[in-house]
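Subject: sequence -> structure tokens, single chain

Hey, anyone have a minute? Need the predicted structure for the following. Not urgent.
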Amino acid sequence: MAISQKLKDLLDEHGVEYEVEKHRELFTAQEVAASEHITGYEFAKVVILKADGKFIMAVVPAPYDVSIDKIKALGYKKVEIASEEDFKDLFSECDTGAMPPFGNLYDIPFYVDEFFKKEEEIVFNSGTHTETVKIKREDYERLVGGDVYSDISMPSRK
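Reply:
Had a minute. Here:
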């Protein structure tokens, strides 16, 4: 599987310069970051949550976890991490668990950790477990529209 067609179309339609890097099949954000020789803080990990019965996307740096309490503070009452089985049909053109950090491509609400405001570039899964995409943070912000940043993460306890 190659870069998600929805993602490619979005990047191309908006004239965004991007780099696609191939790597061996990897499943964790930290492994992907290490294989790309970047810090985990530059890698955008996507976590799908069920919040009040609907799916939402949280985008956090690889070494961080989503804070359920911080997501609740955004106005949700019941929040839990969704299983891959729960959300696999939402991202049918992507390998399960390798979706890019664009909730707007999939019509689901999403929040991006404010940590990324500090980064010049953002690296993320292309829709596969064997490729990443790197773009400038300013381009990412332009593509996702509005202020999607929130304090939604905490350092991983793993």
